[in-house]
Amino acid sequence: MPASAHGVTLGDVFRWGSAGLAVAAVVFICVLALRRVHLSRQEHLRNRAESRLRPLALAIIDGDAGEFALPDEHDIRVLAGLLSRYARQLTGTAHGHIAAYFEARGEVEREMEGLRGRRPWRRATAAFALGGMSSPTAVPPLLRALEDPNPSVRAAVACSLGRLKAPEAVKPLLEALVSGAVPGSLAGWALISIGAAGLPGLGTLVTHPEAAIRAVTIDLVGVLGDPAYTPLLTERLRDSAAEVRAKAAVSLGRLGASEAATELRTVLDDRVPYVRAVAAEALGAIGDRRAVDALLGMARHDQQDPAQAAATAVARIDPRALRASAENPDAGQYVLEASDLVAMRAV
Amino acid sequence: MTPSAGRVRPLVLVADDDEDILDLVVFRLEQANYDVASATNGAEALTLARERIPDLAILDVMMPKLDGYEVTRQIRANDETRDMPVILLTARVQEADVTRGFEAGADDYIKKPFSPQELRARVQSILGRR
Q1: Domain segments of chain A as ranges
Q2: How many angstroms away from the CA of B68 is the closest CA of chain A?
Q3: Helix, strand, coil share of chain B (percent; to 5)
C-alpha cells in the first residue's frame, strides 16, 4: 500500500472513511427514531386533547358552550380542527354557532393578525386555523393571503377557503389552480368543497379569455353537476381550444345532457383525436341512439383511441347493434374487442 | 314514543364507520333522551340489532364488512327484527341510491351532511308512529 509523506496510507483513508460513514448512519437512525417518538407523542397528545375537548365541541355546535373554560392556545387549534371535521358533516345552524364561539373569544381576530406574521409557518398555521372557525369574516383576509409568497401558506389558505365554503373564493382558486400557485389537487378539493354555492360565479368563467381557466371551470361544472349550465357547455363544444372542447364534452356526458346530443355528434368529426374520443364517451354516457351509426363508422376507421372509445360507447348504447356489426368482415379490431367484452359480461 | 317492553327509554342503534358522524349523531340522540348503541361497521351493527332489538336503527350506507343496504335486508329477513324501523344515513342521494335503499327495506333516509334538527325530527316522527 502506498504511503504519503506523513505516513498515511490509502487503506487508512478507507478505514477512516468507513468509520465516519458508520457513525453518520448510526446518528441518522437515532435522529429518525427520536423523530418517530416525537411524532407519536404529538399524536398521542392531540388524541387526548380531542377526547377532552369533544364535549366542548359538541356544546359549541349546539350553541351552548357558556359553561366551559376557555382552552389554551394548543387546545384552541385542536378544537378548531375537531370543529372543522364536525362542521363538514353538518348543515343548519352549527356553522354559525362555531363562528360565534371563536369570534366572541377574539380567536378569529388573533389568527387574522397571524396571517400578517413575519414567519411563513405562523402565517400558514393561522390560515389553517381560520378554516376551522367557520367565520365568514376570515374570508377577505384569506383571499388576500392567497397571494402570499410562500407556497405552504397559499396551500393552507386554499384548504381553509374550501372548508369555509366561500363562494367568492371560486374565481381566485381557479386562477391559483391554473397558474400553479396552489397544487391542482388541493385547489380542486377546495372548489369541490365549496360545491354548488360557487356555481353562480362560474358563468363568466366558462367564457374567460384564458383557455386553461375555461377548461378548469367547465370541468368543475361537470363535477358539481348543474344541468343549468348545459347551454353554456354546449357552446364550448365549438371553442377554439381543443382542451376546452374536450372538457365540455366530458362535462356534458357527466351531466347526461341529452339536449346536447346533436352538437356532440358534430364533435365526432373534430380534428383532434382526443376530442373525438371524449365526445364518443359522452354520447355513450348519454345513451344517444342516433349516434350509433356514426360511432360504428368511427370504431371501424378512426385512430386507436377514438375508435376504442366509439366501440365502447356503442356497447353502452346498443349492444345488439355492436354484436351485429361485429359479424361484418370489415368490423375491425375495436368493434370485435368491444363485442367480445359485451358477450363476456352477458355470461 | 313507545319504547320496547322492559325499556324506560327507546333504544336507537347508530352505525357509521366515521367516528365524527358517530359522535354527532350519538350526542344528539342522547341529548334528546334516547339510549344509544353504536357500531362502526355493518357486521357489528347487525349483531347489535339481533342481540338488543333496538327501537330504531340509523345506518350509514357505505360501511366496511356489510353496507347499510345489506344490513337493512338482513334486518328485514329476521323474524325478530323485521319490524324495526331503519333510517339510512347517506352521502349518496342520487335517485337510484334512494330507490335501492327503499327496496332494501329502509323507512327513510337522511342526506349527509345533515341537520341535527332534522335528524331529531325524523327520529321522533318514526318512533312516535310506533
Answers
A1: 49-65+72-164, 226-347
A2: 18
A3: 45, 20, 35
